[in-house]
Known about the structure:
By secondary structure, the chain is mostly beta strands.
Amino acid sequence: MKKFACLLFVLIFSAKSFAQEGEDVGWVARFGAAAGLAPAFVFPNVGPINVELAKIGIPQLSTNGMFVYGAGGYAYIMIVDNLRLGGIGLSGSQSTSRKVGSSLLSTNYDFEVKHSYSFGGLTVEYTLPFINKVAVSVGAVIGLGTQSVDLYENFGNYEWTELFPQPVYSSKSSHPGVHSEIKNNFISITPTLNLDVPINRFIALRVGGGYVLPISESWSMNNDQTINNIPSNLNAKSFFIQTGIYFGFFAF
Length: 252
């Protein structure tokens, strides 16, 4: 939250400074519509996962955030001055792996952990009318998301017949590998702050951020099996920093 507060201060201060360079033309209702790419960095809490990885000597997942792909769009609805509705979606993952020995099978196998994070939904934003030349918008994303942890044990190349359970596992050639997925589906409200700077009437650059606040979370494993004792701090809360380039028509 401290990061989000700092971002809020910087964006508003920068936007006011930018606006003071132009003429004071009063408060004018904004209008226009746009869509574009919106890549971002999210900072989910992977600490509980790293604790388990450390126990078996697996390199840890990055705690400095991960890149996610994104896209979004919006349109001013005109019924309410300076209010715009739209949508956004973000998705990405990071992974770590190493070769692990198996005394049971007398061979080594590749163990990989993949952490994925995605969310998206309806955006509701109000563009501050007293700032000219740029658009500073406060609002929220109301939507759904998924956080998952995939665990892979791979023993090399496989044959089709090896994908199904065998009577006896005696070597790599008769082991189909293992894949487990821990998934968290959540509903969230994400407060956001965005600054859109137009290059011209049809292209604008964006920088902004938000904080994902889950209001409902549901954990399951594999084919919707119950999983108990999930660490309380392994949740969907996450600060994110967004960038982007939007195409459309802008009247800021």
